[in-house]
Automatic annotation (TrEMBL):
Domain HTH marR-type: 27-78
Similarity-based family: Belongs to the GbsR family.
Organism name: Catenovulum adriaticum
Name of the protein: HTH-type transcriptional regulator
Tagged with keyword Transcription regulation: yes
Keyword line: DNA-binding, Transcription, Transcription regulation
Domain of life: Bacteria
Cited CDD domains: HTH_ARSR (cd00090)
Length: 181
């Protein structure tokens, strides 16, 4: 690997733990994303200087996240691995998996706790805060579930709007406040 490619791949490894998987799997994902051609498990092992067993476990994990796909070449019995879709597709899958693994169980726990009657002022306050957390996570989950339907071009446009949306909402609030006076 060139120094630039190695730097990127190693950084993906460091980011892996923040994305919900370990360093080696992050490195494997980074390597596959920037490799022009699909790679075999042996090539991944050699490039990252990791054991073939580690690569096999990493491949299974990346497949469970639906981030890589297997390809076959005519006349070749080896399996080749490449990213499963575009960068946008992969990002959406990571968000979906994180939601399933982290947000959904939290929402479930919050719903269960909110169904119970509070038995003290302390519990009532706690339930009020849990309700706020539930509503925030529920709204974010609903918003995030709409993103894949937009497609990469519209998502990119939405993200570029960024702070502009806040400014439009501020203007709307000012107009509403002025009209009610």
């Amino acid at each position: 690997m060139t120094p630039k490619i190695e730097s990127f791949v190693m950084h993906c490894g460091e980011m892996g733990s923040r994305w919900g998987f370990n360093r080696t799997i992050g490195q494997m994902c980074g390597l596959l994303v920037i490799s022009e051609q699909p790679l075999t498990a042996n090539q991944i092992s050699e490039k990252l200087n990791i054991s073939r067993g580690n690569v096999s476990m990493g491949i299974k994990e990346l497949q469970s996240w639906r981030l890589i796909q297997v390809q076959h070449k005519p006349g070749d019995r080896k399996e080749y691995y490449s990213p499963a879709g575009s960068i946008w597709d992969m990002a959406i899958r990571v968000f979906e998996e994180r939601r399933k693994r982290e947000v959904d169980p939290t929402l479930s726990l919050l719903r269960d706790n909110l169904l119970d009657q509070s038995e003290s002022d302390e519990e009532a306050y706690a339930q009020h805060k849990m309700h706020e957390i539930h509503d925030l996570l529920d709204a974010l989950t609903h918003f995030a579930s709409e993103l894949p339907k937009m497609g990469p071009e519209r998502l990119n446009s939405l993200m570029k709007l960024g702070a502009g949306v806040g400014k439009v909402l501020d203007m709307k609030d000012k107009l509403l406040n002025n009209s009610s006076k």
